[in-house]
Amino acid sequence: MRRYVRIFREFFRACFVEELEYRSEFLGNLISSFFGIGIAVLTVNIFFYQTDQLGGWTYADVLVLLGVFNTLRGMIDFALRPNMPRLLEHVRRGTLDYILTKPVDSMFYVSFRHLVFWRLIDVLLGIGVIGYGLIKKHYIPSLVDVIVFIVTIAASFVLIYSLWMLLMTTSFWVIRIDDLSFIFDSFFETARFPVGMYRGWVRIVLTYVLPAAVITNMPALSLLGKWNMATALIAALLALVFLWLARRFWRFALRFYTSASS
Amino acid sequence: MIRKYIALLRMKYVEMLAYRLATIVWMTGAIVQPLITMAVWMNIDPSQSDAFLFYFMAVIFVERMTSAWDVWELDREIREGTFSNYILRPLHPIHWAVAENIVYKVLFLVILAPVWAVAALFVPALRFDMTGGQTLLFLMALLLGAALRFLLSYICGLLGFWITKVTAVYGVLEVISLFLSGRIAPLSLLPPVLQQWSIFLPFRYMIGFPIDIITKAANSHDMLQGFAIASIWIVVFVIALRWIWKAGLKKNQAVGG
Amino acid sequence: MIHVKHLHKSFRVHVRQTGWLEAIRSLLNREYRLVEAVKDISFTIEKGEIVGFLGPNGAGKTTTMKMLAGLLHPTSGEITVGGFVPFEQKTEFKKMMSLVMGQKSQLIWDIPPMETFLVNKAIYEIDDRTFQQTLDELVELLELAPLLDKPTRSLSLGQRMRCELAAALLHRPKVLFLDEPTIGLDVHTQEKVRRFIVDYNREHETTILLTSHYMGDVTALCDRVMIINHGTLIYDGELDVLTEKLAPYKRLEIRFANIPAVPWENYGEIVEIEDGKATLRVAREKVAEVSSHFLQHFHVHDINIQDPPMEEVITRAFQEGFNDS
Q: What is the ipTM of this complex?
């Protein structure tokens, strides 16, 4: 475990040095991050120009939710997005063989080798918006609120990672699945708003089948003090189950890969 | 010229067939955002659900029919230097892009129109009746919208001769257009300041304006004004495009591609 | 066919700064350095000639070629190709020339080459009969028949280059610019491409200017070479003359029954002396004298006189520089 922490730190350092090479892009990235969150807030304002609640959430609640969404997306863009689509390339070009010969866990390597630091700005901005929302709401989260928040947002991240990894691992069999990340993005967009906003079967699908909405709604509710210990525990448990599944599937795929390719 | 276009269209058609899977994936992805926005509005005002359903289905249709991706193509071609291949040949490169747009939009039409027709059989909210004249006006507005978006996208792409991040610039424009074109909300629901801006900027005429015609939200005065402003923007874009094209070629000849 | 006079091309290159402050400052006030890629080049190429354009990487070959094709505007100097000024990019000019770049494909990646051919037919306004004739000829010469209907991405590098040549020649250009046409190809395919270029040139009197890293391309194709280094033309003339000029010596290999003990260095530069065999580098004018001397005075099994390999000559030329002497 400590070895992997050290390796992760090494990845971190290597990517950091690499990005410093392109530091002229710093300003552009900063602007685009601010622009992105500004637009998101503006959108919410436009909706609330016509209403004072969205799926039972007030303006301040929705801002907290938006903050959670931005934080989570920042984390995904920081660690997952740079790596997940690459797996396709590795399999297609056979460069996976290099990785398999390295004395590191291959799933760990393909998952975290590339990190994009600029996206951590989004995490910070997201936290800022959460803070702003909470101030608007005049609510100071208790320590338990924060702990449940951290547990649920971590569970969301692990869940997203596991699902994405499961999806990408299928590339060992179905090589021609381009643009899968694009589909992922589209569904992640549904997590921007309160799940209570959707109607009928769409709500059911987004709650139980593609839990896009739950992954942001639950951490936001936790911070607002409206958590439910049972669902939080279920979320954490679910995340671990999916992580285990993704891991098993990866191992299975590798066995297939090493025995099928020559 | 007609023979050249026939050859280009044929080639782009064959090429599109090679990418059909990716095309369908993109199309599916592109409908998610309007659907979410629709859900938001239905939640805000449930009594208007049918109107929102019709409006956002129209957004999906018009958005696809006017969509432009040329900036990404140009950005890549200029960066990788393959754009030279077009410059070297005795036909203006823009014709390749025009042909590609025609092929893809015919494809979208062939998919979306029957889907709409079938859906309208089951969902009364999707039915509409238009006179021949209105249909003609709608089609004209659609064509203008497609031309505006194409020109803007192509102009941005040509900026690639000078700057490396044109797709980011275009991304900013797209986001602005999200609000002012009527994709985030029917324009009548926007704050008055934004509504005013939207009338004079080109974005409204890319998506919102044709929809206003089909939903009969636009009266004859609005239409006259809309067609006039859209036409002015077309002229502005065409002049800008010619000028940027010439300057871009010169720039390219100076620094190499 | 091609006239070039006092051609210059310089680029402004942005000087990169290190450090945060400098980086921010350079956003406002950029510093530039002037790089002279091509310096005062003049030459003339007649109709039907094949000329090889040689030089190390970054010498200015591709820059010159791009100026000839009209992709780049010269900083100063004059160019005419077939009576046209290339950078004006006149349609008539585009129709009479073709540029093939080994590393940039004009074929469309995901569809068969035939589709690109058909598009070119329309763009260059080739009539049906001429197109069919030209296509048949190219298909035969380049052995394209099995390739035409396969998606380009599935072709090998060599197959793709052959299709690339065909796409460039469909409109029967009078001038053909080939930039590294054999790059990355295996020896066998290189040979094929070369043979095609020679045949095509003979058949149609096409003027061809070719750049290449491979000496083999040049020796096989060109009677005349131009050598460019650091942006200046340092040699323009026949290949044979170049060899004589750069390599005023030949390689002499003599096999003896018993190798004699003689002062070898008096005859020429010693390359290698081993059991029964001596290899010397001997000045051209002394070769006859030296060889007859050995033949008369010693028991010689075999004698072999060679020009030094071209690769060696050119490498030496770049290392030592050219003298006008």
A: 0.82
